[in-house]
Every structure is written in structure tokens, then in C-alpha cells.
Predict the structure of Carbon storage regulator.
Amino acid sequence: MQELNIKVGDHLDLGEGVVVRVVAAQGSQIKLGIVAPKHVAVHREEIYKRINPGHREARAC
């Protein structure tokens, strides 16, 4: 896992047309804006686990 310290307004380019921008941060909540091609699924963890119940978390490199 990679941990980053970034500010509101900064963004991460994850490749394949996926960009994550920090829109707002207040207390322990962070609002993210995500741009991704239509063929890339974007889900919160609890939704992803419900959709893919047998999937295990990827190991850190």
C-alpha cells in the first residue's frame, strides 16, 4: 500500500485515464472526485465486497 499526504485540490493520476482529486476535507471525512473511463468500475469498499464476496484484498508489493 502506498500512503500519500496531499492537499485539497491536488490530484492523483492512476493511469488508464483514472484521476482522483481531493475535493474537500473536513474532520475525518474526505470528499473525492473520480474521473474514470466507463469500462473502469469505481466502488466504495463495502459495495465492492458485496458485489464480489469471494474477492480477497490484494497484498502490498
Observations:
- The chain has one helix and three strands.
- The beta strands are 11-15, 18-26, 29-35.
- Residues 45-51 form the longest helix (7 residues).
- The helical segments are 45-51.
